[in-house]
Amino acid sequence: GGMPASALDGVARKVITDAGYGAAFSHSLGHGLGLHIHERPRVSALSKETLTPGSVVTIEPGVYIPGWGGVRIEDDILLTATGCSVLTTAPRDLLVL
Questions:
Q1: pLDDT tens profile 54-91
Q2: Cα 94 to chain centroid, rounded
Q3: Mean pLDDT over residues 6-32, rounded?
Q4: Could you write out the three-class secondary structure of the chain?
Q5: In the prediction, which pLDDT does 56 show?
Q6: What is the structure's pLDDT at 24?
Q7: Contact 7/54 with Cβ under 8 angstroms?
């Protein structure tokens, strides 16, 4: 069993679209994490792959607004039989410089 990678991309895309930034999210949600920078499975709207328990993927949605800038935060996720486990422990505090 597993979840289509395109369905996971769709979940994130809906959250960003509902917040009013759908047009500013113009890339895939993430990819597999392993020995290389980008590995399978691709987590994108066009992916035909299935996410299976035991896989580790990046979840890195980004919003980019022309003339202003953007933000992209990456989390590393272990997919489990009942959902997922977030492996990232970095703080999320906004630092104003």
A1: 999 999 999 999 999 999 999 999 999 998 999 999 98
A2: 20
A3: 95
A4: CCEEHHHHHHHHHHHHHHCCCHHHCCCCCEEECCCCCCEEEEECCCCCCEECCCCEEEECCEEEECCCEEEECCEEEEEECCEEEECCCCCCCCCCC
A5: 94
A6: 96
A7: no
Cα–Cα distance between 31 and 86 in angstroms, integer? Answer: 15
Q: Which amino acid is at 36?
A: H
CA angle 21, 26, 28 (to 5 degrees): 115
41, 5 in Cβ contact below 8 A?
Answer: yes
Strand partners, 4: 50
Mean pLDDT for the stretch of residues 5-20: 96
- Does residue 25 contact residue 63 with C-beta atoms inside 8 Å? yes
